[in-house]
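To make this tangible, this section ends with a sequence with its structure tokens:
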Amino acid sequence: MKIYPLYDGTQHKLPKIEEDKRGNAGLYFTRFYGEYNARQLAGDTDKSNTDHKTNFLENFVRKIGNDKELKNYEYRQQFLIKAQGGQSRIYTLDNCHLVTGMGNEHIVENGFLWHYTLGVPYLSGSQLKGLLRSTIEQYLDINADEKVRLLRQWFGSDHKDTKKQTLANQCGELIFFDALPIEKPELTIDIMTPHMGKWYAEGNNIEGIDDAERLPADWHDPTPIPFLAVKSASFLISISKRAGSDINLDQVWTLFDSALSELGVGAKTRTGYGYLRYEESKTQEKYKDYIKKKDEQQKKAEKIEIERQKQTEFNKLLMNASPFHKEVLQAAQTENWKEDREALGRSIKTWVDKLQTHPSEKESINFILNLAHKHYETQMKAPHKIKKEAQREWVTTLLNLADQKP
């Protein structure tokens, strides 16, 4: 990621983010607004300042993030969730946009929720938990006592307001995870045009009927306010339950499906934002992908364990070996004599010559002899038939060394 000076003379102007760069878009959005001017700092909200905000937001009108990093995060989360007995589903924006984190403070007036390290928009676990709880409280048509029991078991309390709780709090048995995109999400700029901004912001401070700026009326001009929104994305939503819980996750998903498709998540749901549909086929594909990845990880772990055991056994051999035999063992391991016939063939004559000056090293003689029988079985059985003189020489010498008594 490039480093830019914060100021250049009296200007605070940053170049636009280039597409496909690995810089964190969330960090850029949060810390590097580059459209300041004196009128804006003074609180002026005229159209020119709206244009400045739009210019800044245009940096993010593209696909955001890094597919490889998102994939790695997805795998890590999946392994954690499956280990806890949890489940995941994929939900896709249903012909609408999504706004998340709009209440976060920002100079463009409307914030945005970015993942700190991956630099992509996401749905926090607390958002999803709140959505599910509100769905149960307001829309689930069941017996009141059963609803209280459900709320307390799933979320830990029978009411969000502590003053209205009738039962003691406990640890909620459902665990909600942050929902991140499974691939790079596409962002866009949307516009809201409040006609009576002063009324919405300062309506409680109206001084009288002459307070024309604050009174709600038709003489006010609309003020366009640009804000970032997710144009297209698919999110991996995951839940699990605490050990020993008897919660039926199918019941949880049924409520989640209804909440996300009928109520929406994030901001501006009443104006059509934030509706998600369950992607069953994609979820099944992801599960198969997870199983494949899990098998790969398992095989990798098994291979590492086998290599560790081999190394442990090899270290034990070295501890009990003579200095000469240590050299033989280390050469055999480094050059992979047990598996590589050509590697053994390149070195065996040299070591047989060394053995002639160390005839008492029976352990080394037998070690090399066994490897020779493995890779040169025919030659070892009938050395007189070997046509290559050099090969016939080391085979004969090795056999003679093996026959010598200590």
Q: What stands out?
A: The chain has three domains: 25-125+173-193+222-278, 280-320, 321-403. The radius of gyration is 35 Å. Residues 321-403 form one domain. The mean pLDDT is 84.
